[in-house]
Specification:
The structure is a single chain. The chain is of the alpha+beta class and 177 residues long. The protein has four helices and eleven strands, in the order βββαβββββαβαβαβ. It has a five-stranded mixed sheet with strand order 6-7-9-11-10, covered by helices on one side.
């Protein structure tokens, strides 16, 4: 399978970009934090994006680029099969972080290294922005957490309250550049 990676511009983020993108994930178990301890628990749910959610994602990605961040797309032929972004705004006690809010691979293209390559490219962009660390509010699914752990991510030393409050069940992670 030949995958082409591209730094996306606002003009690339048209309304039909995610039309056939398959954001589907069945979760059976999640990591959670209770009284300062992390553990796995059963929790069954399905994540799937509808057209309204996809439109909101496209608007988020446009805003990211307009504010100095970067969006990277992974394409099989002309079909978007993965994407990730890193925000341009730095934060933290020493302005050491930038956020990686989206990193997704279409369901049928997972397990081919696309997510790892997107992550690597986002880390390069974060470094170009002067960050020391990438901050991730990561989905709590065991499989998602395994992905981030395999890349070397750890629990965040500092919690960004704004990111945490968007999805309080997400695990707050970081990756040192």
């Amino acid at each position: 399978m030949k995958i082409r990676y591209k730094d996306l511009q606002v003009k690339d983020l048209h309304n039909r970009l995610l039309e056939v993108f398959n954001r589907y994930q069945v979760t059976q178990q999640v990591w959670h934090k209770e009284e300062g301890n992390f553990s796995v628990r059963d929790d069954h749910f399905i994540d799937e994006w509808d057209d309204t959610h996809k439109a909101r994602v496209i608007q988020d990605l446009k805003r990211c680029i307009e504010k100095g961040g970067a969006v990277i797309g992974a394409f099989a032929d002309d079909k978007l099969v993965g994407f990730a972004n890193v925000e341009g705004e730095r934060f933290g006690s020493r302005n050491q972080y930038v956020e990686l809010p989206y990193i997704h691979v279409s369901n049928e293209y997972r397990k081919h290294g696309i997510g790892k390559e997107l992550f690597k490219r986002c880390c390069e962009k974060a470094s170009d922005l002067g960050a020391e660390k990438v901050y991730i509010g990561a989905h709590p699914a065991v499989e998602t957490q395994h992905f981030y752990r395999s890349l070397g991510c750890t629990y965040a030393e500092e919690i960004n309250q704004r990111i945490y409050e968007k999805e309080p069940l997400d695990m707050q992670l970081e990756f040192r550049l």
